[in-house]
Amino acid sequence: MRKKNVVLEKIPVSGYAAEGKALARHDGKVIFIEGGVVPGDVVDIRLSKNKKDWAEGRAIHIHTYSDKRAEPFCEHFGTCGGCKWQMLPYSLQLEYKQQQVADHLQRIGKLALPAMDPIKGSRHTIHYRNKLEFTFSNRAYLTAEEIKDNEGVVLERNALGFHVPKLFDKVLDINTCYLQEEPVNLIKNTVREYALAHGLSFYDIRAQEGWLRNMVVRICTTGEIMVNLVIHHENKKNREALLQHLLKTVPAITTLVYTINPKKNDTIFDLEPKVYYGKGYVEEKLEDFVFKIGPKSFFQTNTYQGEVLYQVTREFAGLTGTEIVYDLYCGTGSIGIFVSPQAKKIVGIELIREAIDDAKENAARNNVQNAHFFAGDVIDICDDAFFEQHGQPDVVITDPPRAGMHEKLVSKLLQIAAPKIVYVSCNPATQARDLALLDALYTVEKVQPVDMFPHTHHIENVVLLKKKLLAVSH
Ligand SMILES: C[S@@+](CC[C@H](N)C(=O)[O-])C[C@H]1O[C@@H](n2cnc3c(N)ncnc32)[C@H](O)[C@@H]1O
Question: Which residues bind S-adenosyl-L-methionine per the record (predicted)?
Answer without folding.
Answer: 300, 329, 350, 399
